[in-house]
């Protein structure tokens, strides 16, 4: 059954998403739903297909097959309307080197069509909430990796999107900055945003996520709340063990056999 048939309240719904890069099958049939006020984590080993999946969900990459709906709007049929509902943080987002974070936010706010007075107030709020005051007016070229990441996150939050898609939002951040970003994501959830993010940090996923989707070789091998995931992964004692169980076992084959050979 299509995911949105079982979740009519979905803010984000993917149905049968597939992506081929030549002979490489990066995503091999992904179904996923995220509801308003929910954080879903996409976890998988390197090369599992997380970035490819998130880019298709954000409308940056065209799927080979399958469908994405954002707030019920079909991404292929009405891409501008669907994308307007999304804040996307890509793993390789670059800031314009000569612009400060404040100027960058002004630029993207205008592209989003935010009225000038409201935009100024919104940027002030983001600078305060993301603790960017000490560097908001410096050229981006002079910022540290963590400062740049805060500015990129501010850009994703800027237009108050109902769906946030964040590819490794705490990548390369120290523990303090990482925790700060995680708390910022929790605040966005409290505002009713639907949030999908990828990470390699298991503790972060356990702390932040309402549900976790484990992806391996382009397929979701299990999905649910952490205790249920652990129970289904041979009574794994934590998320790391559940993750390793699935990776070592391998992704299910089309014929239903387990390629890893384990139970
Ligand atoms: N532009 C591309 N052209 C060809 N193959 C690609 C391209 N982008 C990704 N791939 C391949 O698709 C597969 C999935 O890659 P993807 O970047 O989605 O994985 P990932 O789960 O995000 O990995 P990581 O955790 O290392 O960032 C990999 O085998 C990768 O080599």
Would you write up a description of this structure?
Belongs to the ABC transporter superfamily. GO terms for molecular function: ATP binding. The protein is an alpha/beta fold and 263 residues long. 37% of the residues lie in helices and 23% in strands. It has a six-stranded mixed β-sheet, sandwiched between helices. Strand 4 and strand 5 form a beta hairpin. The protein starts with a helix and ends in a 14-residue tail after the last helix. Residues 253-263 have low confidence and may be disordered. Bound molecules: adenosine-5'-triphosphate (ATP). The site of adenosine-5'-triphosphate (ATP) has 11 residues, from strand 2 and helix 2. Residues 21, 24, 26, 44, 46-52 line the site of adenosine-5'-triphosphate (ATP).
List the bound ligands.
adenosine-5'-triphosphate
Text of the CATH class: Alpha Beta
CATH superfamily: P-loop containing nucleotide triphosphate hydrolases
Structural class: alpha/beta
The overall average pLDDT, rounded, is 89
Q: Tell me the major beta sheet.
A: 6 strands, mixed
Shape: globular
> How many E strands?
10
Rg from alpha-carbon coordinates: 19 Å
Taken as a percent bin, the fraction of beta residues is 15-25%
Spatial arrangement of strands, main beta sheet: 6-7-8-3-9-10
The rounded distance between the terminal residues' Cα atoms is 28 Å
Helix content: 25-40%
Kindly report the oligomeric state of this protein.
single chain
Keywords: ATP-binding, Nodulation, Nucleotide-binding, Transport
Family: Belongs to the ABC transporter superfamily.
Protein name: ABC transporter ATP-binding protein
Domain ABC transporter: 12-242
